[in-house]
């Protein structure tokens, strides 16, 4: 495996999860690290990687904006090839990273290269712009998919998402009062961020065990 990845979890894990970051924060952000820790803690091998524009921010001056999500599809496919998981692979990511994974998933699933897709806070629409849906390709998605979404995520709330035309291969785990990082307001929800991440990881494990791999 390449040194371009952050790796954790058991080396002999049955299933590997490859995660890409969101548009504005790197692969080692607090939210990405916490999610990866939770998934590794239930027995997944977890790999994180960065798109080139984000990696460049570590060395170059200024903040290069992310390209359109579609432009990142080849980079995600290249990361899968470089990882060479050697066993069942689930792809996904946080926000934009999960969206990019969802756009390349079906071709990879059809060819037997991946077993499923997991999205942590899917960006169904830009905040404050519910009319600008990013769901067209999700209606016919064939890849088994788990979306973990906070009920108050400004990119798609529990009130909005049930009205979208989504494939029946998509399962959604709703996390009470969670925001785009799945983080709840403890005084309102009674849950902590750690509680929700533990629930996410437990659900991901149960879901993965049902996949035909």
Automatic annotation (TrEMBL):
| Domain KANL3/Tex30 alpha/beta hydrolase-like, first and last residues per copy | 14-208
- From what superkingdom does this record's organism come? Bacteria
Q: Which UniProt keywords apply?
A: Hydrolase
Q: Which InterPro entries match?
A: AB_hydrolase_fold, KANL3/Tex30_Abhydrolase, NSL3/Tex30
Show the GO MF annotations: hydrolase activity
Pfam families in UniProt:
Abhydrolase_11 (PF20408)
The answer on whether this UniProt entry bears the keyword Hydrolase reads yes
Q: What protein name is recorded for this chain?
A: Alpha/beta hydrolase
């Amino acid at each position: 495996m390449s040194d371009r990845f952050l790796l954790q979890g058991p080396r002999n894990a049955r299933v590997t999860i490859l995660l890409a970051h969101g548009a504005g924060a790197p692969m080692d952000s607090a939210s990405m690290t916490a999610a990866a820790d939770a998934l590794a803690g239930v027995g997944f091998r977890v790999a994180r990687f960065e798109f080139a524009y984000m990696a460049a921010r570590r060395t170059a001056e200024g903040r290069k904006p992310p390209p359109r999500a579609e432009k990142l599809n080849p980079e995600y496919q290249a990361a899968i090839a470089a990882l060479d998981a050697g066993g069942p692979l689930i792809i996904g990511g946080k926000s934009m990273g999960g969206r990019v994974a969802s756009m390349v998933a079906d071709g990879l699933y059809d060819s037997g290269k991946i077993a499923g897709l997991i999205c942590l806070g899917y960006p169904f629409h830009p905040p404050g712009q519910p009319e600008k849906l990013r769901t067209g390709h999700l209606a016919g998605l064939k890849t088994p998919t788990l979306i973990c979404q906070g009920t108050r995520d400004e990119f798609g709330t529990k009130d909005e998402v049930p009205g979208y035309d989504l494939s029946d291969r998509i399962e959604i785990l709703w996390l009470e009062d969670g925001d785009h990082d799945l983080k709840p307001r403890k005084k309102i929800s009674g849950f902590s961020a750690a509680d929700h991440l533990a629930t996410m990881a437990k659900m991901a494990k149960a879901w993965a065990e049902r996949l035909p791999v």
